[in-house]
Every structure is written in structure tokens, then in C-alpha cells.
Amino acid sequence: MEQNSPERALMLAVLEDAIRSFADERRTRSGRRRRPAREAEAWLFADDHAWPFSFVNVCAVLDLSPSAVRTALRAAPTDGRRPLWKLRLRTPPRRRTRRVGAIAS
Hints:
- The protein is mainly α.
- The protein is about 50% helix and about 0% strand.
- It has one domain (about 5-85).
- The chain starts with 5 loop residues before the first helix and ends in a 30-residue tail after the last helix.
- Residues about 90-100 have low confidence and may be disordered.
């Protein structure tokens, strides 16, 4: 999928909205916010691969690690000091291993 495609932008918006809903529930126990927050939490922690807009598929398109996003959400402070949607969600790039010398046959 193209880097600046409308589909990617929509997927990013869906993810941001879910994170905001999840964060709202953690900060306040308002009855009006509970249902969207529970739905967002269910979506964020589901391992559904069948639906194009499932959390794991959205992460794949956005080049995010689902487990890194989930870890950041679980570990985020609940006092509102740092908005959840500003958390660093990407995993660090893997180091390339250099081959030292080739095996001669």
C-alpha cells in the first residue's frame, strides 16, 4: 500500500481513535465513555487477522508491532501526564549482523 494513500490515513485514524477511547476510560470512569472504551480495548487486544481493519492488520499496514503497541498501552501512566496517543509505538529496528569472512570450500 502506498505510503500516503487514503486507506493508510484511514487506518491511522482508526488506530488513533481507539487509543484515545482507551485512554479516556483509564482517566475517567464516566458511564458514557465506558462502552466505547471497552470496544476499543477489545479491538486493540484481539488477534483477528480476517478483517482488513483488524488491529493486527492495521498495525501491519502502518509498520507497527502489535505487541509493542499493546505493551505501551498497558504500561502507560493513568494520571493523564502523557497522552497515550503520543507514546512511541514503533519497535527499534533490528541490528544487522555482519558476516565476518566467508566460508571457503
